[in-house]
């Protein structure tokens, strides 16, 4: 009850400020709202390369966003969660021609954009294993008003960016939006996996940042966060056993949720590397030889590398009931499903990775992500042809 009251007060204040600034004229400006890495950064770089110099780029980032977006660039970056940036953030939302978000942001429920403004959902995941949005099982414990807010936010999205037809079917159920809202441009951050120069530089930096990985293979464990129960005390993988079996040939990267990461204490610093705060998940995936995860969206990008994955779903039945999963989990994921550290170790030792599943999984979920997703997206949203004509005209003056 108290939480709902606080949300309502926040939204009332937000609405008042937004409506005031909404009376101002729109500027030649794109405002990004971001909590995640990758999609937004790559899109911004492509946008900057394509647009005229007078097109302003604003970045509203949450505290969880680890990217600085290049301090040498001329972006205006604000943390919308901080009080000192609160009013500025609302001003930019109300006066931009384009709004591009990478997640659900509750304040969009009160942003009645002008008719000529485009609001785009650049979702942070290329695919989905667990259910979210309107299909999330936890909605059963939410108020009717909260569910109505969700739908209002989803209705703001004029376009939703997708990399596959499978993801469209999931978004239709999760966001309740019709077919004509989806643009099949591919997922921007997957362009990285087709760029040999960027990949080479990423490997060099990774080896520089973690010199002890040279000569060893990398296992990365990237589990999904479990609400209210997942912390370093009950991390359901036996790190001691992993150390004893693999310390000579492997290193173990841990990619943990911030809540878990803050409590984690590393007992095996020569074997375990906590990469939870590392700036780029793509760089980590590139350097990973074996991925261990559960219900995360990481496999959708990782599958482009055609490397082995193991799905450590120790709480599969419980998680299915609490959160909900799309289709039959065991048959959907491109690798063996295990429920104990013992099984996990056995799969790695026997190299029983079921790699034949990975390519078909990658093809299905990355149908439109072919290395030019950023360019496709900018060309779809902006009148790039007209802009290029204007730039050439300026050069000839």
Structure, explained:
By secondary structure, the protein is an alpha/beta fold. It has 2 domains: 213 residues, 3-Layer(aba) Sandwich (Rossmann fold), CATH 3.40.50; 171 residues, 3-Layer(aba) Sandwich (Rossmann fold). It is built from 16 helices and 13 strands. The chain is globular and about 65 Å long. The termini are far apart.
In short:
This protein is α/β, with parallel strands linked by helices. It has 2 domains: 2-187 and 370-396, Rossmann fold (3-Layer(aba) Sandwich), CATH 3.40.50; 195-365, Rossmann fold.
State the main characteristics.
single chain, 397 residues, alpha/beta, Rossmann fold, seven-stranded parallel sheet, six-stranded parallel sheet, 16 helices, globular, disordered C terminus
Secondary-structure blueprint:
Elements (H helix, E strand, L loop, with lengths): L1 H20 L5 E8 L4 H12 L5 E6 L14 E4 L3 H12 L1 E6 L16 E4 L22 H12 L3 E3 L3 H11 L6 E2 L12 H14 L7 E5 L17 H8 L3 E5 L3 H4 L10 E3 L6 H7 L2 E4 L4 H5 L6 E4 L3 H7 L6 H4 L4 E2 L2 H10 L5 H10 L7 H9 L2 H13 L1
């Amino acid at each position: 009850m108290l939480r709902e009251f606080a949300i309502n007060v926040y939204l009332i204040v937000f609405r008042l400020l937004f409506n005031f600034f909404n009376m101002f004229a729109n500027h030649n400006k794109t405002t990004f709202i971001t909590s995640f890495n990758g999609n937004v950064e790559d899109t911004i770089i492509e946008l900057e390369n394509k647009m005229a110099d007078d097109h302003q780029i604003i970045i509203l980032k949450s505290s969880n966003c680890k990217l600085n977006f290049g301090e040498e660039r001329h972006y205006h970056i604000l943390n919308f969660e901080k009080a000192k940036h609160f009013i500025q953030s609302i001003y930019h939302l109300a006066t931009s021609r384009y709004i591009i978000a990478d997640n659900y942001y509750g304040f969009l429920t009160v942003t009645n954009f002008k008719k000529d403004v485009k609001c785009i959902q650049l979702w942070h995941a290329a695919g989905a294993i667990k259910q979210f949005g309107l299909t999330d099982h936890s909605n059963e414990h939410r108020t009717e008003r909260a569910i109505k807010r969700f739908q209002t936010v989803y209705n703001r999205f004029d376009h939703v960016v997708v990399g596959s037809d499978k993801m469209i079917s999931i978004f239709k159920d999760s966001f309740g939006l019709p077919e004509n809202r989806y643009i099949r441009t591919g997922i921007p951050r997957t362009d990285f996996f087709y760029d040999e120069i960027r990949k080479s530089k990423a490997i060099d930096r990774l080896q520089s940042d973690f010199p002890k990985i040279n000569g060893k293979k990398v296992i990365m464990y990237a589990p999904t966060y479990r609400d209210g129960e997942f912390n370093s005390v009950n991390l359901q993988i036996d790190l001691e056993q992993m150390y004893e079996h693999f310390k000579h040939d492997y290193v173990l990267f841990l990619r943990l949720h911030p809540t878990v990461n803050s409590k984690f204490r590393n007992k095996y610093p020569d074997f375990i590397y906590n990469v939870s705060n590392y700036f780029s998940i793509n760089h980590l995936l590139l350097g990973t030889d074996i991925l261990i995860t559960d219900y995360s969206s990481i496999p959708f990008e990782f599958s482009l590398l055609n490397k082995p994955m193991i799905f450590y779903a120790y709480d599969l039945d419980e998680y299915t009931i609490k959160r909900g999963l799309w289709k039959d989990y065991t048959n959907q994921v491109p690798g063996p499903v295990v429920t104990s550290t013992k099984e996990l170790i056995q799969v790695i030792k026997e190299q029983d990775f079921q790699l034949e599943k990975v390519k078909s999984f990658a093809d299905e979920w990355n149908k439109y992500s072919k290395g030019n997703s950023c360019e496709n997206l900018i060309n779809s949203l902006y009148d790039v042809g007209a802009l290029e004509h204007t730039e050439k005209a300026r050069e000839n003056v």
